[in-house]
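Budget justification aside, the reviewers requested a transparent look at the raw inputs and outputs of the sequence design task funded under Objective 1. We therefore reproduce one unedited record. The lines immediately below are the structure tokens for a 166-residue chain.
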């Protein structure tokens, strides 16, 4: 599947969900840029409003699970905190094949919503404490959604887990 097609279903599913749930959101179309800093400038949003999505594997202690970990784009993840939250020994980024299988999106276009039953959604609380809106790529590198923070929490219902480096 080409990169242009990959993510289209996820994008449509996301927009349908947000519309059905009566979320306050807008779609911004832009050039396909992969860097958080560049896309936040194009969107006209603060870097800290960006919801960075990391597909991770947590292993060890009998734990083996995939996690979609969301944090503010101006922060770095501490994957050891993520692992210990789930009772695992270590966490790492998932392989490109796993990302493709679990999200049907190219890396960098993954929205902060899990549409796969084997992908547990967690988010670092700092993302929701500083701004009234969050921004993220919406399944496609050239489409972003800017949405109300409280609507995101209500619809996505992530487990709130502090896993940013301090």
């Amino acid at each position: 599947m080409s990169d242009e097609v990959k993510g289209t279903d996820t994008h449509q599913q996301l927009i349908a969900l947000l519309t059905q749930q009566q979320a306050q959101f807008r779609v911004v179309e832009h050039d396909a840029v992969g860097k958080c800093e560049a896309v936040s400038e194009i969107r006209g949003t603060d870097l800290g409003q960006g919801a960075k999505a990391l597909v991770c594997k947590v292993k060890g202690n009998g734990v083996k699970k995939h996690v979609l970990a969301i944090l503010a784009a101006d922060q770095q993840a501490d994957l050891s905190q993520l692992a210990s939250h789930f009772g695992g020994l270590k966490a790492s980024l998932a392989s490109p094949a796993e990302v493709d299988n679990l999200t049907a999106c190219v890396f960098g276009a993954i929205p902060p919503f899990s549409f796969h039953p084997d992908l547990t959604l967690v988010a670092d609380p700092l993302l929701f404490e500083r701004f009234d809106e969050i921004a993220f790529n919406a399944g496609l590198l050239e489409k972003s959604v800017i949405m109300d923070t409280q609507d995101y929490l209500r619809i996505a219902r992530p487990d709130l887990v502090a896993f940013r480096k301090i």
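Strands lie at 25-29, 51-60, 63-72, 90-93, 119-123, 133-137, 143-148, 159-160. The longest helix spans residues 8-20. Computational costs for records of this kind are itemized in the attached budget.
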